[in-house]
Amino acid sequence: MKIIMLLALLIAGCILATGCVGQMKNATVNDKTVNPTITFTPFSNMTSVSANISNSTVTSGLKGLLKISSGGWIGEFPVSVDKTSVGVLATKKPITLMIEEGNHTVEVCCGIICEQENVTIKFGKQRTIDFSEQLKKDCEISEPTARIIGYYLSGDQITVNVEFINPTTQTLTMSADINCGYSYIESRSYDRVGNSAGGQLYSTLKSGDRETQILKLNLASGFSYIYDIPTITQTSSK
Fold first, then answer.
1. What dihedral angle (degrees, nearest 10) is formed by the CA atoms of 217, 218, 222, 225?
2. CA-to-CA distance for 97 and 129, rounded, in angstroms?
3. Of 109, 235, 111, nearest to 169 (Cα)?
4. How far is residue 219's CA from residue 150's CA, in Å, rounded to a whole number?
5. Which residue(s) pair with 185 in the sheet?
6. Tens-digit pLDDT profile for the chain (238 aa)?
7. Taking the model in full, what pTM does it have?
8. Per residue, what are the HEC states of the chain?
């Protein structure tokens, strides 16, 4: 046992003394020694790059063509896009604009009444908006107005829809007297008898507003009603 221990110590000494254990050699390429290099990107730098990318805003700058028309409606009408004035729209003189891609709101005004349309602009495409119908509705009335926009008979009652319009710059209280002639057959005598029904409507409107009021005209008891077109006999505003 002592002999074995002695041999082991001698072998260990030999190894330490003569460098028997081989060392890792550098790689050799084409007779040249290449030292391997390992690089690391600091975490702090990676965070900075990521932050710069996420915080940057990229805009395309692309634009599309927008044409705004009043059709054949006569007049001059201020136009704005996204609440910024872009000119005056005139009869047979449409406005043509180059606008950035995206969603925009176009507004055309007739007096104090304005109409809006939303439009999506895309690069390389032309969009056309025609405001002729809106202008016809808004510009044909320049004074306080009450008008019948619908009526119908139901049983022994005539329903009349009256629209009040205030195109002025101040608040108004408006009224309208409505009348409708009719005839019917009496239940007892079976005679056809003529009659009329009427009523009055009121509306308080702010500048540029319009409102629809409903009036129900009650008819005399009977059947086989025949009625005239309801009419407005008198209006007032103050």
1. 10
2. 12
3. 111
4. 18
5. 192, 223
6. 444 454 455 555 544 444 444 443 444 444 444 444 433 444 344 333 333 333 333 346 899 999 999 887 778 899 999 999 999 998 788 999 999 999 999 999 988 888 999 999 999 899 999 998 888 887 878 789 999 999 999 999 999 999 999 988 899 999 999 999 999 999 999 999 999 999 999 999 998 888 999 999 999 999 999 999 999 999 999 9
7. 0.55
8. CHHHHHHHHHHHHHHHHHCCCCCCCCEEECCEEECCCCCCCCHHHHHHHHHHHHHCCCCCCCEEEEEEECCCCCCEEEEEECCEEEEEEECCECEEEEEECEEEEEEEEECCEEEEEEEEECCCCEEEEECHHHHHHHHCCCCCEEEEEEEEEECCEEEEEEEEECCCCCCEEEEEEEEEEEEEECCCCCCEEEEEEEEEEEEEECCCCEEEEEEEEECCCCEEEEECCCEEEEEEEC
Structure tokens at 23: 């060392």
With tokens 């805009």, the residue in question is: 59
